[in-house]
Amino acid sequence: MVTLHPGSETPTRASARPKPELSPADAERAAALRRMKALALSLLVAMAVVFAVAFAFQGQVPWLQYVRAAAEGGMVGALADWFAVTALFRHPMGLKIPHTAIIPRRKDQIGSALSGFVEDNFLSADVVRTKLDSVDIARKVGGWLATPAGAKRVAKEGAAVVRGAFTVLNDDDVQAVIEGLVRKHLLTPPWGPPIGRLAERVFDAGHHHRLVDLLVDRAADWVSSNYQTVSHLVTDRAPSWVPHFANELVGDKVYIELSKFVAAVQSDPHHQVRQSIDKYLKDLAQDLQHDPVMIARAENIKAQVLGDPEVRDLAQRTWSTIKHALLDAVNDPHSELYRRFTTAVRDFGTRLVSEDELADKVNAWIGDAAGYVVSTYRSDIAGVIEDTIARWDAEETSQKIELQVGRDLQYIRLNGTIVGALAGLLIYAVAHAIFGG
């Protein structure tokens, strides 16, 4: 069964599947298309009426022959152009005439050609770079980032990204990753050689002397404040038969000598004790690198300090600390991190606007990145057009294209009617002038 829909000049089958619901924009285009079709059809009907009247009365009114010729030419032009426009989207009158319904039949070839056209003429590195250079993205983005609203928007979106990331991430998985990194980079390598190399550089540069000075100063302070402790150490270890006054004399002597010794070490940067400490530390650094026994001792210490439970606890505490710190910071617009990030964004935007060298570098980076993406993936990007059109239904494709350009194509029908009328009038007038009537 074939039926005609109101406002349509093409019959469709009643059994055809329902058309998808149009968007508001497409519905507006469809209404404009129907109005233009109605206008073109009205002009054709008007030409037919004029032709009928002129044909009927041309014998009585001779000049109506010219009107008849013009109306006849107008009808021919209108019908020819209606056929041409309709043949693009469907079979005219439902008749499967060759070379009609061009778009539904050849949509895949059209999609491929359109994809190739876009790839060859738009998706080239030179075209993209030229366009980006004319836009000056760096300064435009910088001007926006320098405003309080722009910086707050970036900070807000950044906070949303952080919250979303923490929502997606599984705590157990992240802790497992941290634990794996700790084992790989902290536990698996031997500690002795790298610690020894680091210590060797520190000792050779003399950076440990300040620590030695601090220890000597603390020892001098302790000796100065603990006369009774030093004296008791002597008297407590003296034989019981030694007189008490002798113990006191010995204790005083020991304290005085100890004070002098510590003071000498404290005042002389080249004291023998200091040199002995330097030698011991440098030998220790060498042993940590080359002595198997010392390396094994360092490994034992490592195993005692960082066993499996300790590593798991370290990973858990590390992730928990990072997670809660970042969440607290991004959820509080007045937090130090949030304010510093906002300030950094504004400063960067201001630099993009005021520093030509930085703006040029950013523009160059953007251009290089866009050029690389286009050069590498141009076929894939353009292929989206071809793949999308290939997935469309033939009738749906025809409808989409007709909604976009159909209204303008109706002007062809209007122009065809007018040009046909003028051509018909001109041909009849020339023929009448040459051959007479």
Account of the protein in words:
The structure is a single chain. The radius of gyration is 47 Å and the shape is rod-shaped. A two-stranded antiparallel ribbon has the order 1-2. Helix 2 (64-89) packs antiparallel against helix 18 (394-435). It is built from 18 helices and two strands. The relative contact order is 0.16. Helix content is 82%, strand content 1%. A hairpin with an 8-residue loop joins strand 1 and strand 2 (12-13). The protein is an all-alpha fold. It has helices spanning 24-57, 64-89, 102-105, 107-121, 125-135, 137-145, 148-168, 171-187, 192-205, 209-225, 227-237, 244-267, 272-290, 292-305, 308-331, 336-354, 356-391, 394-435; strands at residues 2-3, 12-13.
Key phrases:
18 helices, 437 residues, two-stranded antiparallel sheet, 82% helix, mainly alpha, rod-shaped
What's a quick, concise take on this entry?
This protein has 437 residues and is an all-alpha fold. The protein has 18 helices and 2 strands.
